[in-house]
Amino acid sequence: MKENTEMVSGKQRIAAGWSTVALALVALASGYAVAEGSQPGSKQMVRMAPKLPQVEFPQGEVVLPLLDWGNRPIVELTINGTGPHRFILDTGAMTTVIDKGLVEEIGLPEVGTDELKSPAADKSMLVPRVSMKMATLGGIIIHDLGAAVLDLAGMFGSEDAPRGVLSARVFSGVLLAIDYPNDRIVVRAGELGPSDGARIFQYEESDGFPTLTLSVAGTEIKAHLDTGSPATFSLPGQYMKSLPLESEPIHRGTARMVDTEVKLYGAKLDGSILVGEYTFENPDITFGEGFPAGNVGYGFLSRFSVTLDMKNKRIRLDGEAVMAAAPTTGTPTMVRRIQRGTSSGKVYGVMFPGIDGDPLVINGVGEGSVAEAAGLQAGDIVLAMNDEQVSELSSQERISMLRASPLILEVERDGKKLSVKMEL
Questions:
Q1: For residue 237, what are the CA distances in angstroms to 55, 244, 269?
Q2: Which fold has domain 22-35+43-188?
């Protein structure tokens, strides 16, 4: 199948021709197999636990390129010697899913039936289950990988849709890091340290999914960590009435899941969402009628390197992202608040729409901040940091520079160059 690709800020993005369809939160309720019935020649469905795949991890770490389709992480999977085939890597899927068209193309054997149910649906449904004798991903070998069969191309409404959804549970015995800022996925042995309430979180499982606790304008809400969701923050519809919002929620469309559809509404929060040490100010929230829990997706996760330790049920978020209202317009904008990275929590208060921008334009400074006192303004173009040209620095190098103290920025304002020195 031919793929359409485009480059977005230096990142390979596989073109997706839809916007309102949401990937289902696929939950495996149980497995079934066909067995001989009590009468000669009859058949019956026997409930059974699905066979877990055997996974071989090479020594050291495996680094995979992180592709993107519709704001979802994509990996390339080779199945029984065919491919590679594009699969969404999904922390919000309890079972791996494969497109029925691909099953027919490579002739995968049916081994039973899966009972699937999204959290928003009232009833489950039965779908065929197939087995992949061997699937490979980089140097990782997966034996006997089972998958539920769905019409993903029809669900997404695109012939260029990914051919499957790879459940992150395949990596339960190792550390899985989805490093969005650096466009890579890292798989390695090890464990995360204990929760510190700032960047490392001990999570619970809700409906089988990794779950974080959000403080939404002072209200604690459980939210699934879902790499398969293109949204930022999604909350149950009941919170439309109880949370402080900047305006009345408006209808935004319908989310199509594997077994149901959910009406979506949207509004901006008049307040902040806190996740450990990270603050998202006045974020846009999607509300879904029938959602049993909250959900954090790409708009949140893409600001971080997200590491999952599923064995110990821990998550680590490494990043500098916040969502804030730009002081000049009041319009909520994705920005990065560059921190020094010390326990003091001091910040310069410089805000950018993205640290990898070229040119790198300041879109706001914090009121009463070091940056404001130094005279920086929204609209200033940063040309150099401590005598290093910004155009020659990577995103990580820019972040490191902006943590330094003292920090000298060369900026351009109204065609004139200025030198601004700051210290923390």
A1: 39, 14, 14
A2: Cathepsin D, subunit A; domain 1 (2.40.70)
Does domain 200-323 match CATH 2.40.110.10? Answer: no
Chosen CATH of 350-422 out of 3.30.70.20, 3.30.70.1150, 2.30.42.10, 3.40.1190.10: 2.30.42.10
Over the Cα atoms of the chain, what is R_g? 23
pLDDT digit string (tens) for 289-319?
777 788 888 888 888 889 999 888 899 998 7
**Cβ 290 vs Cβ 280: under 8 Å:** no
Q: pLDDT tens digits, residue range 312-342?
A: 889 999 875 444 433 333 333 333 333 333 3
| Structure tokens that stand for 63 in this block | 């680094």
Contact call for residues 23 and 369 (beta carbons, < 8 A):
no
Q: Is 89:75 a contact under the CB 8 Å cutoff? A: yes
360-361 and 381-385 strand pairing: antiparallel
Q: Residue 399: how many CB atoms within 10 A of its CB?
A: 19
pTM score over 0.70: no
94 contacts 167 by C-beta, under 8 angstroms = yes
Give the Cβ contact number of residue 416 at 10 Å.
Answer: 7
